[in-house]
Amino acid sequence: MTRAAETWLVEPLQGFVAESSARLVLVMTSAGQVLAQHGFARSLDIMTAAALGAGIVASAEALARLLRAGAYERVVHEGRESSVLLGAFDTPRGRWIGLVVFGPETTLGLVQLFFGQLVRRVTAAMPADRVPAPVLARDFERELQDSLRALFGR
Amino acid sequence: MAVITALVDHLSRVPGVRGAVVAARRDGIVVAEALHEGLDGDALAALATSLIERCGRVARAAGREPPAMVQLRATGGTLVAGPVGGELVACAVAAPDANLGLVRLAIAESQGALA
């Protein structure tokens, strides 16, 4: 099941899932605010995955700066039964992150290939009328609840 | 690694071949490539590996051995791919007028060398 806080994200995300055979997908801001998801059954799992994913990307980017290695575009954790790809990308509304969980029914090469297409589709389809708003502590919880309601339809 | 590099080099020198890639079969990532401009090696590696795996599944489902080589013919050219040495997949993209016999021979020879 694919759901998104903004409906224009659903189509590119569904296309990515169909082409890459990914099991779970999250699209979020670099602050960990979830924008779209596929395959997650519980809001708690989403919140945890988003927080951990955003943290891993932030750590990798800090490490890249420390090592003067430019930017790490993708972080991959390979496992026996499933693997995780974390990819950060720039959009007109700030830096976003994709978290993809995939199994042996597909390959890292295919997931990376179609993730690149997802990034291009998301950037192309993004409405230009919204600018990124600063994340304020007093708004954060309400926005989080709003996002989760949209993502789970309740 | 020298055998793999030689294979890619050999394939890319066949008249009419636009590019050749050797990819890891497990993850579809490029191991070696020699491409003419305009060919995306990452995409070619990922899709050719997937093609070989899927053809293998079809063959097994039909009670046959996995294919030693897969040839995909289109109006703009031909893709020839085959598993090499168990862990790799070799793939060449050829123009319609390319000598496909030489492409297939190069892949078959490397299958023997890396067996």
How would you describe this protein?
The complex is a heterodimer of chains A (154) and B (115). By secondary structure, chain A is of the alpha+beta class. Chain A is 45% helix and 23% strand. Chain A is built from four helices and six strands. A six-stranded antiparallel beta sheet of chain A has the order 1-3-2-6-5-4, with helices on both faces. The longest helix of chain A is centred in the middle third of the chain and has 24 residues, at 43-66. Chain A is globular. Chain A starts with a strand and ends with a helix. Chain B is an alpha+beta fold and 115 residues long. Chain B has one domain: Beta-Lactamase (2-Layer Sandwich). A five-stranded antiparallel beta sheet of chain B has the order 2-1-5-4-3, sandwiched between helices. In chain B, β4 and β5 (88-94) form a beta hairpin. Classes of the chains: A alpha+beta (154), B alpha+beta (115). Chain A binds chain B through residues 78, 106-110, 112-113, and chain B through 23, 26-30, 42-43, 45-47, 49-50, 53.
